[in-house]
Amino acid sequence: MQFLTSALVLLLSVGALAKNILLTNDDGWQATNIRATYYKLKEAGHNVFLVAPVSQRSGFSGKFDIPTSPTLQTNGEFNYPPAGAPSWGHEVDDNHIWYFNGTPASSAVFGINYVIPKYGDNVTIDLVVSGPNEGTNMSPGLFTISGTVGATYTSIYRGIPGVAFSGSNSNNSFFKDSLDLKDNKEPSTIYANKVVEFVNQIFKAQGNNPRALGLGVGLNVNFPKVGYENETCTNPKWVFTRSTGQYAAGANLVYNETSNSFTWGQKSWDGLTVCNNGDCSLPSENFIVEHTNCQSSVSVFSVDYDANLGLTSQVKQILNPLF
């Protein structure tokens, strides 16, 4: 009897936290990180819809591309699916796992506007989880480029809370080659478990509130190297951070005179280290993830992009003669 009572309590507690989650990314629906996260979130009791681009779409920010043909003109990432397949579709054995021939932002909206209304009983989405990306997305310099983040703020625009997760495992991997949910040193598995821990805390704190996060508010989370890429780190600590600050960097153009060509690089500038908004006492994402060991950065952002009152007043004084 005691066993049955304990089992019932456990079942009720899991059910109380069970939420509707839209899971997306910019690496593609076939990426190992997103597949591991899908299964771990489902294992935690959540109703998850994975909806992601059919191919690698990193760096597309909030670009909103939609299919121009009912069928794929080129192969999906890892030929999964091949050219000639429909421009959107789902796994044969799981209609909660979808691909879309679009960008991360449009893929998220495909999930919101089509998949869930048509195949998900039109449930209310409690949270959009984007990622974990294969590669970090830190500082405004990468935040504004990232497709992972683009899918997140596109969802937040629509009133749905969102969290972008990015890992430090930058390899582009196919889940059929790399997925191993029982391997506790596999980075994708570690990241997936940490996503579940993080998301469950959000829902636990939500309680009976109608929203998991405030309207227009999102979170940007970056994980350090873990597991086989850093065997001293299998359970990174959470640290509150800010997007700007020490070591914050952005994309840079580097010219090579020998080859007469350009390469992509990163560099830090003063504009990325200034603190105009938020808690200026917090460390930067780059400092925590790149210059400490086994710590994950957690930054709060808002899609209210207006400058604060002080900065606005300064600019008004500059331009006042024109008005």
UniProtKB/TrEMBL annotation:
The Survival protein SurE-like phosphatase/nucleotidase domain, residue ranges: 21-230
Gene3D superfamilies in alphabetical order: Survival protein SurE-like phosphatase/nucleotidase (3.40.1210.10)
GO molecular function, one term: nucleotidase activity
Record keywords, A-Z: Hydrolase, Metal-binding, Signal
Signal peptide (UniProt feature, chain positions): 1-18
Pfam families: SurE
InterPro entries associated with the record: SurE (IPR030048), SurE-like_Pase/nucleotidase (IPR002828), SurE-like_sf (IPR036523)
Family: Belongs to the SurE nucleotidase family.
Name of the protein this chain belongs to: Survival protein SurE-like phosphatase/nucleotidase domain-containing protein
Species in which this protein is naturally found: Candida albicans (strain WO-1) (Yeast)
